[in-house]
Amino acid sequence: MHNILVSDPISAEGIAALTNRTDLSVDVQTNLSPADLLGVIGKYDALIVRSQTKVTKEIIEAGSQLKVIGRAGVGVDNIDLDAATEKGIIVVNAPDGNTMSTAEHTFAMLMSLSRHIPQAYKSTVEGNWDRKSFKGVELNRKTLGIVGMGRIGTEVSKRAKAFNMDIISYDPFLTEERAEKIGVRKGSLQDIYKEADYITVHTPLTKETHHLIDLEAFQQMKQGVRLINCARGGIIDEDALVEAIDRGIVAGAAIDVFEQEPPERHPLLKRSQVIATPHLGASTEEAQTYVAKDVSEEILHILNNESFKNAVNMPQVPADVRKALEPYYLLGEKIGEMAIQLIQEPPHKVTLTYAGELTDYETESLTRTILKGLLRYHLGSKVNVVNATYMAKSYDLSYSVEYSSSSLDFTNLISVRIETKNETRTLSGTLLSGYGPRIIKIDDYSIDVAPTDHLLYIQHLDTKGMIGHVGTALGEQDINIATMQVGRKDRGGDAIMMITVDKPLPKQVRDQLEAMEHIRSIKEIQLS
Ligand SMILES: NC(=O)C1=CN([C@@H]2O[C@H](COP(=O)(O)OP(=O)(O)OC[C@H]3O[C@@H](n4cnc5c(N)ncnc54)[C@H](O)[C@@H]3O)[C@@H](O)[C@H]2O)C=CC1
Ligand SMILES: O=C(O)C(=O)COP(=O)(O)O
């Protein structure tokens, strides 16, 4: 039974996929204080939030069972992503469900701002009939600057075009081709400041976008510019906006989101040029149902160990790539697990090489799986594909990935080279059609071994009788040999045996083998 906590108001219809399940327990508790949440989070496997709940490092650390945090919406700035990644908790969002609603809200704000609708409404219901104070401006033939041309920015641009606006946009990922296709001009932030009559922001709130629009930016803007923020409080510096309004640079601002929510008597709210809504961009029947449905589906997939698509703290793996790589994940994990057991000292560098048909795929997810196998051996189950690269870095283990055209006549090949201060070991494996994962090379020795639970790797001198001696020693202690592979470099030189046995070796057998003449080293390899 998995326990799920929903800590912000969410569409009941949207989460029906979770609440209808008898194998899940879903608690909806939308009035928890941070202290309450801290007290209860320990028993939940999944947490679903909107923008209200602040999922801090402290909450994440107290979430000892947490596997997934679902954001029923887009912005994840209320979730400490680094803390979640460090703990191996997947964070998923619902990136598409509220695009239309937020674009429409932005447009409602743009129009309200131009025609002073909120101010005029207030005046009218107060009994006035003031037709002079609320003279507006047309959108027709005005220039709209859009900062952030993602999903919402693009939908806003379509609506603005229908109003015959000229659109100039800045987004680090906006190419000339895409700009042309959407029918907007690509420009810099400075171009926008110089030319725009209206500026609307649609970026996430990040370190880079925090106070992106500050006093210096306002000083470059056209006198009488109007601003809209339906993205995140903090992208526009609120104090600078107040100053820009007071200096007459900004003629009006429409604000849906605030640096602190609720904004508690911020001077902005005292300016008659400012209209505001309480973070309503995504608040429609439709958007709330879509985002809740999307995030519920993702949570179900994650709790059932199925593939999912909207993780924000690990790479997205398209379904076709995941399907193609699925059988390699097991091979990769086993190779990682074996490689770490071949070395005697802490590793400082790992090089992964993919060859054959693996070079056709984006292999980041496979890399994470190999690192997971490698790190788990010492660090345990706290390592998973979400935090594998983070964990590697935090243990000063650098890793790199190479693609090779040489796959040693196999259709696919994964090699791991693991380096310590004094040793370098390499291990290669392949997925043999019809046979599954095989280890086909250790250092310079070719072998053919299935990565089963108990392996015995013996380095010895190539001399007669070795196989018999080892076989007899194991047999006498009731250790059954399932398979045995031998390999040598040169006649009479270094040789290896790779033996698969049915159970771990008792210490006395190990000691006995180690004491045997011509045996150089014995390594027991346990795979999970
Ligand atoms: N008011 C509300 O209720 C809602 C607010 N939002 C906010 O709107 C934001 C945008 O949402 P989407 O369009 O769905 O996200 P998106 O991810 O589709 O688009 C964001 C765009 O911002 C661009 N960007 C990032 N840094 C930038 C920078 N420094 N300058 C210019 N562009 C930059 C990205 O390249 C991307 O194209 C969200 O991050 C969220 O914070 C989203 C939904 C509802
Ligand atoms: O999706 C987003 O980023 C939003 O800002 C919507 O926030 P909300 O879910 O309405 O609290």
UniProtKB/TrEMBL annotation:
A Pfam family this chain is assigned to: PGDH_inter
A molecular function (GO) term: NAD binding
Classification via InterPro entries: ACT-like_dom_sf, ACT_dom, ASB_dom_sf, D-2-hydroxyacid_DH, D-isomer_2_OHA_DH_cat_dom, D-isomer_DH_CS, D-isomer_DH_CS1, D-isomer_DH_NAD-bd
Reactions mediated catalytically: (R)-2-hydroxyglutarate + NAD(+) = 2-oxoglutarate + NADH + H(+); (2R)-3-phosphoglycerate + NAD(+) = 3-phosphooxypyruvate + NADH + H(+)
One GO-annotated biological process of the protein: L-serine biosynthetic process
Pathway: Amino-acid biosynthesis; L-serine biosynthesis; L-serine from 3-phospho-D-glycerate: step 1/3
Source superkingdom: Bacteria
SUPFAM superfamilies cross-referenced by the UniProt entry: ACT-like, Formate/glycerate dehydrogenase catalytic domain-like, NAD(P)-binding Rossmann-fold domains, Serine metabolism enzymes domain
Annotated keywords: Amino-acid biosynthesis, NAD, Oxidoreductase, Serine biosynthesis
Residue stretches making up the ACT domain: 455-528
Enzyme class: oxidoreductase
EC number(s) recorded for this UniProt protein: 1.1.1.95
Cited function: Catalyzes the reversible oxidation of 3-phospho-D-glycerate to 3-phosphonooxypyruvate, the first step of the phosphorylated L-serine biosynthesis pathway. Also catalyzes the reversible oxidation of 2-hydroxyglutarate to 2-oxoglutarate.
Similarity comment: Belongs to the D-isomer specific 2-hydroxyacid dehydrogenase family.
NCBIfam families: PGDH (TIGR01327)
PANTHER family: D-ISOMER SPECIFIC 2-HYDROXYACID DEHYDROGENASE FAMILY PROTEIN (AFU_ORTHOLOGUE AFUA_6G10090)
Entry protein name: D-3-phosphoglycerate dehydrogenase
